[in-house]
């Protein structure tokens, strides 16, 4: 059985940004919320794969909302209720998008026209949604930068090890590369923070 | 240490500050720089936020991996459960078919007792008359069994068994038929008494195959249970 948490412990645990604690919290939330969310989706025109994808998205949104301070504990709403609410809203939106897509495809079929190369409003909306998490922002970096920053900041490899693993020659080369990558990520962070819906959280830096 | 002039070195300097790797004196220098240079302060804050974002990204990646592992595990479990349920369903269906077969398929006992040579003393006219009467009863019993007149069949076979001078083979045949007749006429306890005589029999001549024996046993138990 996974460890259990009170709502307060969940929020505090996530704000600590600790790997083991976050994993335990995610496991707890999975056991609490996966089945209701699967039922929600499968009863409303979705299948198990849709439910799994939705659950992943919903957990990411919840984590991000906690970290961004968008989620505030309330005595009348449990965390699991809040998560279920996100799932409901997101799934209804997904159904609406699918409906619109189907209608549009049918219209194009009737007119025998090609799909436009420019993204549709729904695609733009989905793309905008995709960058709602830190993970999505980080993934906007190129593969090499992602690998390098992950190796240094998450796996705590030395510059010498990174130079060897990523084939960058010397440790100095790796260091310069790392500097450029972090500058690139700073730009992305800055753009993300400037989004009107975003409330940057500049407090409580934990050592990386 | 003074604030480095080289940008890359300055970045390392700030990271050491953010990671808490500086002495109090060094921290004081950075703090002073932040006070004096708003652009530098903004840059430090942005790097802080970038570090947080990276940390969150790693945690989100880990969260997705954890969820996927759990989903794969649960999917496997569901599939295993489906296989087990289907297997159990098959076993239950087979058991039900077996019960139906044992309960309703006809019981067959061999017909070879129709051979007149199984009786004794056919040469003796007096005895032969008795034997023929016994035979007559036996065949009447068989006919009554076939026609569903089980009470009459019981009577016929009971009379057959009152005769003393009949071969063991023919006696056993009559006993088996009587057991079936008892069973069909709703007297499972009597049928069981006859049936039990054969379970311990080592030199029986009249051979009833195992499946038909099981059928008789099963129907006796079923009838006793339904009583």
From TrEMBL, chain A:
The organism's superkingdom is given as Bacteria
Which Pfam families is this protein grouped with?
Sigma70_r2
Q: Tell me where in this chain the RNA polymerase sigma-70 region domain is found.
A: 29-96
Q: Which UniProt keywords apply?
A: DNA-binding, Sigma factor, Transcription, Transcription regulation
Give the molecular function GO annotations: DNA binding; sigma factor activity
UniProt record similarity statement = Belongs to the sigma-70 factor family. ECF subfamily.
Protein name as annotated? RNA polymerase, sigma-24 subunit, ECF subfamily
Q: Which organism is it from?
A: Fibrisoma limi BUZ 3
TrEMBL record, chain B:
Q: Which InterPro entries match?
A: TPR-like_helical_dom_sf
Q: Where are the transmembrane segments?
A: 83-104
Q: Kindly state which keywords UniProt assigns to this record, in alphabetical order.
A: Membrane, Transmembrane, Transmembrane helix
Superkingdom of source: Bacteria
Name under which the protein is recorded: Tetratricopeptide repeat protein
Q: Which organism is it from?
A: Fibrisoma limi BUZ 3
